[in-house]
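[SOLVED] Need 3D model of a two-part complex

Original post:
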Amino acid sequence: MLRGGTVAVWLSLSAACAGGAQPPAPPTPQDDSPPTEAAAAFASTYQPMPSQTTVLRGATVMTAAGPTMERADVLLVDGLVEAVGPDLDAPAGAREIDATGKWVTPGIIDTHSHMGVYAAPGDASLSDGNEATSPNTAEVWAEHSVWPHDPQYALALAGGVTTFHVLPGSANLFGGRGVTLRNVPSRTMQGMKFPDAPYTLKMACGENPKRVYGGRGRSPSTRMGNVAGYRSAWIEAADYKRKTDKWEADGADPAQRPKRNLRLETLAGVLAGEIRIQNHCYRGDEMAVMLDIAAEFGYEIASFHHAVEAYKVRDRLAETGTCASMWADWWGFKLESYDGIRANIALVEDAGACAILHTDDSGGVQRMNVDAAVALAAGLEAGLDLDRDDALRWITINPARALGVEDEVGSLETGKRADVVIWSGDPFSIYSRAELVLIDGAIAYDRSDPEHQPLADFMLGILPEEVTP
Amino acid sequence: MTPARKVVRAAWLAALVLVSGDAAAQTVAVTNARIHTVSGSVIEGGTIVFEDGRIVALGADLQAPAGALVIDGTGKVVTPGLIESSSQLGVVEIGAVRQTVDASSSDDRVTAAFRASDGLNPFSTLIPVAATGGVTRAVVRPTGAALIRGQAALIDLDGARPADLIVRDPLAMVSALDQGAAGRFGGSRGAALMRMREALQDARDYAANRGAFNAGARREYALSRLDLEALVPVVNGELPLVLDANRTTEILAAIALAEEFGLDLILSGAAEGWVVADAIAEAGVPVVTNPTENIPSYDRLAISLEGAARLAEAGVPVAFSTGVLVGSPALGTHNVRNLRLLAGAAVRNGMPYADALRAVTLTPAEVWGVAEDVGSLEPGKSADVVVWSGDPFEPLTRAEHVFIAGREMDAPTRQDRLLERYRSIGGAVPEAYKK
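Solution:
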């Protein structure tokens, strides 16, 4: 029996990513350099839904960029955050929303999702997340498995999730490219694609690759086999990159072009700094090895994922500016997750590294605020100096950094996309619900209005009205 | 280090010094707390007294007895210990490490004679971790692929008393009528039901004809002698049958099966149960479910976050479990400590607070037949008592004191020990010297 969330745990053999407290600047849309062929293909067709100038009045506003503001307003103009503060002047005709007693946060972001590639209803026919046919499948792109009609997106939206990153599974040393999506209904994957968000490459450490391929009597069957696999691939990629760079430097004569290789193109994109590494890696000692490999070949790891032992090497994460995407409290389902502790996220934060709460789970993604509260509670119990504003960053701006979209989303700051959640109360209370979710200033979800609640094609008419959830 | 942590560690050190003391014999009084008795009304500013492992008194106008260990409950909330209704605590340590997994028999399609308790490891590190969430009792049930999987046991979570860990065994027979079972036993729900009937008919026949069977004068049975023997109390209605059933079809079939054979049925999962809540209520069948699951699949298209609240509203006894409707052991057995968050989520989705608290205390105690001993705070009952820093359903609240039969669970867990070891890192002395 395959279910979206379940499959993710067992096959997700997933990866971890690393970014840093101050990660390297991602390629930005402002660059004048022409897009690579790969970036130009399958281009985003995302268009924000219609929005109007809106002002939220009198809320407790958490911006993820500064301390919580009591009784503050948020002004949204042209789908962007215009201003946050007390008693804002709103343009004439602006929609006024009384948010007194409510809490307002940026939209929530998950760095690790398999929505769309392990879609509901879970079944082999929709199991498209793990191309477990070779230890190196850097040539596959998760977006080509994404089903835009997965009913799980709408459930996550009701939990305040406005952006998420879909990764291939973690059976392979190199699992393929990940894609960052806007949580909006669309007929096509391209219509969900976050415009100009950098591509990522999923890598996986540890038990998964060696189990999957060792079980078939082929390499890798050990952790040392894993490392040999990574390094051999990077050597090949560096060679490919040298050849293509030289061809470009020599004038890029189409007739002289080296033969394209999709696998090496992705790896070379990493070496060129255009594609960010999201690296499934549970154990601290393996993270240290992966950081050395990155140094050897001259790339950076945006974030480790599933990093249950990040706390053991949090100094190294801070030094290298590497993020860790972590669960609040998953542990023990395999040996490499046995040392998971609830204070993990808080300890990484305390060390000055970039701490992220991720889910890898289509159930958990609906309750990231609760998981963040669990992680915060563990940190407070451990005596660390933390507060709700820290916990909010674990599910907003820090994931935005790891994905290279922190200039556009992840906090409520002037000029950023107006991805906003209005909560019924303290978002770290078990009882609070996302009442209104805005994406680019448009109402993407309104708990009180079925007209503003998307319904996936799959769910349409599949049950009689009276038994529809 | 927070004051709370200091308290815990101080208690731990004291325990090391007083190894020979019988902690459960100590008289304990929690004073001036908000006490949720569950069976009665909430007592504001109340005191609860327990000694020799039993609750002796509680009320609003009660003095702590002289000589009692007094815990100031000002601003705190006291509840009964929580009860997890479906776990593999003690029979799964690390999901993917085979040597540590004793949760099933892979022998056959019917392994009714398999007892989860036979492989129970009282020293599992999962047990004290679960207790940190205020969980004091748990059902340990077989997993696996069999149609009838075996017998569940009820344990308490005081792993320091390995000989006394098991509270009731066998507690129930565990079986499945869900999509997975259908796929394995004939390829359809009807085929699974056919095999289930065959097993129950054989058991009923065997129960009435043991002598003839042993003399070789009875027809052949589809089941082994051991499995038949194990099913006799089930067909006699003496041992509950837990049936995993999610789709409306499966639920209705389970109820019909129970009527046909006179079974004491407990539904597990019941993802679409709310659709036929009245029928379940009318049959008097309790439901064990997880109110946070809502991902639709073909065996649970109508699954809803509001399902549990609707079942309770219809009068169905509802117990919550971290372990049902969840495919991931990382979310179930390893995080039984999150049972309280399930109750909070149910409240978020429309269930009255009192019902949600009951769904993790008294209702499971009633479902599992141990309500005379646990599940509520009443004089004479086992002192399974939790003192919370605030509302137990809130993630920012913590269980400050967890008593199981009067003994406080204050030893640090393996996870606490890891935290202390790595509280500071990278010093001159390797962390491995910090014990």
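Edit: Chain B is about 30% helix and 20% strand.
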